[in-house]
Amino acid sequence: MRIIGIDIGGTFTDVVVYDEATRRITAAKALTRRGDEAASVLECLEEAAAGAAGAAGAAGAVGIERVVHGTTIGTNAILERRGARAAVLATRGFRDLLEIGRTRRMAPNTLFDLSFRKPAPLVPRPLRFDVEERVDAAGEVLEPLAEPALRSIAEALARHEVEAVAVCYLHSYANPAHEEATRTLLEDALPGVFVSPSHEVVPEYREFERLTTTVLNAFIGPLLDRYLEMLENALRRGNDEAKLYIMASSGGVMPLARARRTPVQTVLSGPAGGVTAGVGAARAAGFGGVITCDMGGTSTDVCLVHDGQLRITVDNLIGSMPLKVPQVDMNTVGAGGGSVAWVSPEGQIHVGPRSAGSSPGPICYGLGGREVTVTDANLWLGRLAMRRRLGGRIAPTMERVESAIEALARGAGIDDTHQMAAGVVRIAVARMVASIREISMSRGYDPRECVLMAFGGAGPMHATTVADELGIDRVLVPKFPGNFSAWGLLTSEIRHDFAETLLVGCTPDTINRVGASLAGLRKRARERLREDGFTDAAITCRETLDMRYLGQAFEIPIPVPERPLSAEAVLAEFHRTYAKLYGHASEDQPVEIVNARLAGIVPARVPAPVAEAPAGNGGGARLIERRRVWFDEGIDDVPVHDRGYIPVDAPFRGPAVIEETGATTVVFPGWSCRRDERDTLHLVREAPSP
Q1: For the segment 176-232, what is each residue's pLDDT rounded down to a tens digit?
Q2: Among 147-156, 413-422, 607-616, whose mean pLDDT is lowest?
């Protein structure tokens, strides 16, 4: 049987196929076709099947047991505002909450921007409706749902030809009866319309964040539903028993049916797969502290993992809108291989955030690109080879690259094109370094205590430069770095997240209520996972409490101490975590428990290591060529290795270039490289940083 991981990125679509019988891994890439992403997936699957030993040769070939899919389709739809025609139903008096929001600017770095204009809401005012109903914070019904008026609203929705409806009533997390009744009525009156009730999407307090997340769910729901249905039909041809899972932003995977109901949980699904795989690869190499750096064609995603534990957050922004779903805490910066370099009117050089993407792509793709990108700069510096296909598919061309870099250099007042190209790369690296410092140093973590796990098509090319800036002494490059996020999908656990708002003090008198809430969440998690076909013996639960000092506006997640649950143990853990994050703790101040959270988990059956020995064992390193590569200056005689032929445990010194399908690793001067028995590259600084 085969297990398949599929990751759709902004530039490339990646597929990894693992054959359990032969323990063989096959990887493939295709350019992402915007608007027709399923075609890219099927193209990848056909290529992977053709390359696998004994493959039947088609995407629908028999023998597929499990498919795990991560996608940025929802993310792109939100950022480009190309989702469904959606409407909002809110408690009377709250129809404009979506536009009013909070008394602060949600968009980052806009506090002092005099030209800032608030983005228009995804749902215009004519499609936002007041509904007569009211429930208080305790779940008591103050005003019953007026169904006759609701039927009139349903008729108006039909006239407006809406495709989706977000239903968000006040305090529905405490009592969802009115939202349930509304969904039933709308599904009867408007067959085929996607209905998204807020108590299913965000069952907790904070009305504005719950509303925006529910609207986002409705906005992308029909698009994701159509795509997933089409993909499911294609994958299950001849594989009726194949199970299709979707990667969630939380780093776990969920069944297809759940993803189609709450697609907003998939918004950050692709990058999460790479993080989970990075944690596993670092742990296998003997490291618990790791910073993952996933540099693709469009952006770079970075995440810090301390003691091997992913940090999950429920507060984030996408397109300046709050996104309140469990998600791996990571930073994304617009610095990828396709990031466009440009010169401001003042003569300053900038890189990104705009990307050439897959169409037209960098100039060297030969697909119509006219603007210099990071990939073009690396090709001009000799770090990429003209004879090797980029991403395993694109034959690079130098036509127009030199003239474009020359024009860019003239605009910046630079005479040397190599200095210009090196400057483009340095600016992209600086943006990645700033993003890593934000998730490490600004939160009390020293990046020098971590290893840097570099992957993505462009990550290993820039890894040692990033590490130099951060003072990190060791870089790990895993097997199949260009397809690593797709590999991570195969190793991710099945996960369902649950939450309940409590808003109680952390005292001996209230701790029993907290325990009862967690017990209820455990019961719901086990029931959900049993419905998915798992036994109680396979299920584990991870519990956290959102806590804050009384009067604060925001809370922090605290892992629940071992049983028996006690207020003293919970308080001690809160004060310790708070002091770690902010440098102090006020142990004499009252503490409030805001939400109880629980993740129901079934560990994945992790694919076994590849049985075949690395190709280089006993045969010596095989040089592809020697060529001139530009670092701080040009170096003429740089060896270029084929990764598969590098002997295990035979370190060599940089400078060097290591090539493989889908990625290139550049070992800068002052660094050495060793390939271990798991086919992980260890890049080590020869003179450790102070």
Answers
A1: 999 999 999 999 999 999 999 999 999 999 999 999 999 999 999 999 999 888 888
A2: 607-616
Which two tokens mark 417? 């094109």
Residue 480 carries which DSSP code?
S
Candidates 309, 616, 290; CA nearest to 475 is 290
Distance of CA 571 to the CA centre of its chain: 32
Burial class (CB within 10 angstroms; exposed 0-12, middle 13-18, buried 19+) of 624: middle
**What is the tens place of the pLDDT at every residue in 126-140?**
999 999 999 999 999
From 216, 222, 183, select the one nearest 201 (Cα to Cα): 216
Give me 49's structure tokens. Answer: 């099947």
DSSP string computed for 370-427: -S-BHHHHHHHTTSS-SSSPBTTTB----TTHHHHHHHHHHHHT---HHHHHHHHHHH
Q: Which of helix, strand or coil describes residue 237?
A: coil
Q: Which letter does DSSP use for residue 107 in this model?
A: S
Q: How confident is the model at residue 53 (pLDDT cuts 50, 70, 90)?
A: very low
For the domain 269-335+428-490, what is the CATH superfamily, name and number? ATPase, nucleotide binding domain (3.30.420.40)
Task: Using pLDDT thresholds of 50, 70 and 90, give the confidence band for residue 569.
Answer: very high
Compute, in degrees rounded to 10, the torsion defined by CA atoms 546, 550, 554, 556: -30
Q: Quick one: which H or E segment has residue 160?
A: none
**pTM of the predicted structure, to 2 decimals:** 0.84
d(CA 196, CA 194): 7
Q: What mean pLDDT do residues 367-375 have? A: 92
What Å distances lie between residue 154 and 150, 183, 191, 433, 655, CA to CA?
A: 6, 11, 11, 51, 67
**Mean pLDDT computed over 609-635:** 69
3-state secondary structure 583-623: CCCCCCCCEEEEEEEEEEEECCCCCCCCCCCCCCCCCCCCE
What interhelical angle do 417-439 and 401-412 show, nearest 10?
Answer: 80
Nearest to 282 by CA among 493, 495, 489, 449: 449
**Amino acid in position 41:** V
Q: What CATH number has the domain spanning 78-225?
A: 3.40.50
Pairing of strands 331-333, 300-305: antiparallel
Burial class (CB in 10 A: 0-12, 13-18, 19+), 403: exposed
Q: Are 150 and 156 in contact (CB under 8 A)?
A: no
In a 3-state reduction of DSSP, which class is residue 628? strand
pLDDT at 218: 97
Q: Which two tokens stand for residue 18?
A: 């693992």
Query: In this model, does residue 409 exceed pLDDT 70?
Result: yes
In terms of C-beta density within 10 A (0-12 exposed, 13-18 middle, 19 or more buried), how is residue 155 classed?
A: exposed
